[in-house]
Predict the 3D structure of the following.
Amino acid sequence: MAKIIIDKDIPYIKGIFEPFASVEYLKGDEISPKDLENTVALIVRTRTKCNAKLLENSSVKIIVTATIGTDHIDLEWCRNSGIIVESAQGCNARGVLQWVSASLVLMSEKFDWKPADKTIGVVGVGHVGSLVAEFAESWGFNVLKCDPPRVNSEKLSAADGFVEFEIILKSCDIITFHTPLRRQVDYPTFHMLNINNVGRISKDTVIFNSSRGEVVETQALIAHIERGGCCCVDTWEFEPMINLELLSSVDVATPHIAGYSKQGKATATAMSVKTIAEYLEIPINDWFPSDVQKNRAKTHTVWSDVCSSIIKYCDLVTETATLKANYEDFEELRATYNYREEFF
């Protein structure tokens, strides 16, 4: 009977594999090489660093991360070692859209502006960024998009709404980041916004980061706020040890939960179950948590409707106050978060 180790904080998954495999649930950041003895499959989140130190002498053959990002996994090492790696791409896109829209509503109320008055720059136009750009356009924002890998692979241009990052910095009233974290030479995103280029942004520009903390340098955000700028932050450098100076100054502060909707989490778990079941030839077909209603792809293309309704689904004022008062419980707030019903 194959052994599977699963991060204990992945929702809805307990009891699914037990009839077919030996299953152990562990805290993600405490999974050790010793735990992996005789283990064939891992189902993890971002807190498990899957690299040579953890995996070198293991029997692991497949890793599935119930997240869209894979920067916690050494993909090259796994590939060279014959370990399959799969992720839950796109699972939380509408949840992040919900966080972005709620942040936009708060900023519009704070500064009394309307979408037609503003240009929003979407940096990273994959599953999440594409949705953000689509809905922002429907609400009346002027939208500029930045995604160099897509521009080069798909031959996109300004006619398609795609521009260079430098233009985003100089031209946008709101900049929202939705890139993966890439440290490689080709299309790196580590400290994409940094202390050296943040000065090119107008002091009135609002910065959102719900991608990865290291995409935006902490000191760049602090410098922007010191000039009078505003920031809304869900992902932080060095989390859970987040910078308290930055925390105290941002308008929106959440503990890396932008994509934490019921439907998004259920979809991520279902995708993970499907991948492992197929690999181990376990007869689990089209499983989805019975107590979660599948996303119905609702549309909210009228800005006034979003403004009047989003707080019922995503109360960022309360969540910001909670994190600022309990920052030392960052991981606990994240692990015990009450998943939101999706608005979109």
In short: The chain has two domains: 3-87, 93-253. Residues 11 and 294 are 15 Å apart (CA to CA). The first strand starts at residue 3 and ends at 7. The mean pLDDT is 95.
